[in-house]
Every structure is written in structure tokens, then in C-alpha cells.
Amino acid sequence: MEASTIIYSTAAVIGTIIVAFIISIWLPGIERKFVQARIQQRIGPPISSPGIMAPLKFFFKETINPNSPLPRLYNALPLVGIIIVLFIFLFLIPEMYFLSALTSIIAIVGLLKIEEVIYVFMGSFSRSIMSLSMPFPDVIKGAAHPNIKKSFLEDLSSLRAFRLIAFGSFPLYIALFVPVAMAGSIFLGDIVAYQQLNGPVLFSLAGILGAIVYFIGYMILLNEYPFAILKTKADVIEGPYMEYAAKYRSYTYLTRGFLMFTLGALFSVLFLGIPPNILSWGILVNILVALLFPILSAFMSAFSPIFTFKQFYPVAAGVSLLGVLAILATFV
């Protein structure tokens, strides 16, 4: 490979990542300021508050040692999360398609699964002050209960995260295989090439159904209402994030914004055939999709009930069946 080609590819990759990150830190503010606040008829926070000012504020706060059996690993999990999302986005850039297996749907699914498993570990490794102040069963003298395991609020978060992985993520992963079925390949480069020759997957019956399923899966993966089973009032709305503080909480904010952009870029690759590349006009489409998804998600969240598990399971199952129907429609 010539030196000029290497420089060109490196500049494209680095530039695309920088642009994506800059856009991603504004997405939470756009969602809350221009959609959620307007629907609720209030002013809302400054657009820079959720994605920029909040991470900066927490990043400079004093770091504390969490109440955890593995405090270093517990604090490292948000950083691992943002690195995983970065790798997912990296493999969407066409200059990285030479990596073959890493730029396939199988690799993308595997990385997304790791991102989901992190929430299970967060809940499992946290032992918050709130839980320890009211242990169950009571540990005062004369109140010991033999052979009863002490429970923590974060254990509930870990259990909900596991249920989310076991059931809730099916719609998104099934939707990923609609373009695979149409292109006849699991590799992103082949899926993009197929759409450049035959038009976007989105402009077909299977593509429309797959896009609907993908969007529902997008909301579930981001824990947006009505699918926000990962966070409940039982653990102060924070779920596995409850005990994170200082810079580690900052990482959770940055990860969420970057995941929003990455999922939008993934949709652009699979259903429009337009991969993210700062040196191409297609990056504008990626940005537009990344902006459109949070807006649509906020509208749906505002006018939807909050699902319980009894409601969540059949909805997730129904949307998954719609995804299977979309895959079958590719063979018609």
C-alpha cells in the first residue's frame, strides 16, 4: 500500500471518529431541549447541558472508592463501554473493511452483546451505601437469619439487565440480518456494494419492516421509555449507574451519546448503503439519521405508557416476529 493511500485512509478514519464524537455529545441535549421539553411545554435544559456540561462537571469532581467487591473493575466498566462503542463505529468506516471478519454483522452483534453484558456486571459489582444502610435480613444482635442471602438494590438492576439481554435485544439483532439476507453476505463491504448497485434496502417491503424493527430495537438498547426496564424507581431511576461518581459517571454520559450516533450510522450502512466517511458527502446522511432517531424516539417515549415486564415481553416478542417476517420477505 502506497504511503499516500495510508495517509488518506488514516485521515479519513481519524476525521470521521472526531466528527462523530463531536456530533454525539450534542445528541442528548437536542433530544431533551427540542423534543422532550417542547412536548412537556417547558423550557428544558441548555442544549449543551446533558452531553457536554454534565460530563465536564462530573469529570472534575473528587473520585471516590466505590463500595464494591471489585472496585477497580467496577470503575473500569464505563470506560470499557465507550471503547466497545468506539470499535463498533470504527468497523463501520469503509477504510476499515479490509479487516474482513471484524467488519461483519457477526462481529457487530458480538460487540453489542459485550456492551449489554457490561450493565449486568455494573449491577453485580455494586454495593451501594443505600443498600448497606438497610441490609436485608437485619444483622443486629439477636436478629440473625441463618442461610438467608443478603440482597442489594443493584442486584435488581443486574437481573433486569440480564432480562434485557435475554429478551429485549432480539428485535435489533434480527433487524441486522434483513440486509444480510438481501445482500447474501454478512460483510459490511458487501452489503454496501449491493445497495450501490440495487438501491437502498430501505426502499423495499423487507427494508421498511426491518427499519421499524431496528428502530424499536434502538429504543430498547438505549433503555428509552416505554422500554426503560433497566432503570426503575426502586433504585432511584439510575439502575446500574447509581454508585458511579466523578469521571466514571462522565464516561457513562459520553458512552450514551456516542452509542446513539453509532446506532444511527449502523442503520445508514445497513439500510441505506452509506457508510460514515468524513471525506464523503455521505457523512451528512449519517448525521441526519443520528439526529432523526433520537427525535423520533423522544416523540414515541412522550406518548407511550411505561411498560411493565408483562407488557415488555409480548411487545418484544411481537416485534421480533415482525423482524422474522421482514427476513422472509427478502426471499419473495
Question: Could you characterize what this model shows?
Answer:
InterPro entries: ComplexI_Subunit1 (IPR052561), NADH_UbQ_OxRdtase_su1/FPO (IPR001694). This is NADH-quinone oxidoreductase subunit H. It is a multi-pass membrane protein. By secondary structure, the protein is an all-alpha fold. The chain has one domain. Helices cover 67% and strands 0% of the residues. It contains 13 helices and no strands. Helix 1 crosses helix 11, helix 2 runs parallel beside helix 12 and helix 11 packs across helix 12. It is globular, with a radius of gyration of 21 Å. The model has no long low-confidence stretch (mean pLDDT 83).
Write the layout of secondary structure elements.
Elements: H1 3-24, H2 27-39, H3 49-59, H4 71-92, H5 105-125, H6 129-133, H7 153-168, H8 170-183, H9 188-198, H10 205-221, H11 246-272, H12 282-302, H13 309-329
Care to give the gist of this entry?
The protein has 332 residues and is an all-alpha fold.
Q: Label the overall shape.
A: globular
Q: How many distinct beta strands?
A: 0
Radius of gyration: 21 Å
Number of domains: 1
The unreliable regions are: none
Order of helices and strands: HHHHHHHHHHHHH
- Averaged pLDDT, please? 83
What structural class should be given to the helix and strand makeup? mainly alpha
Total helix count? 13
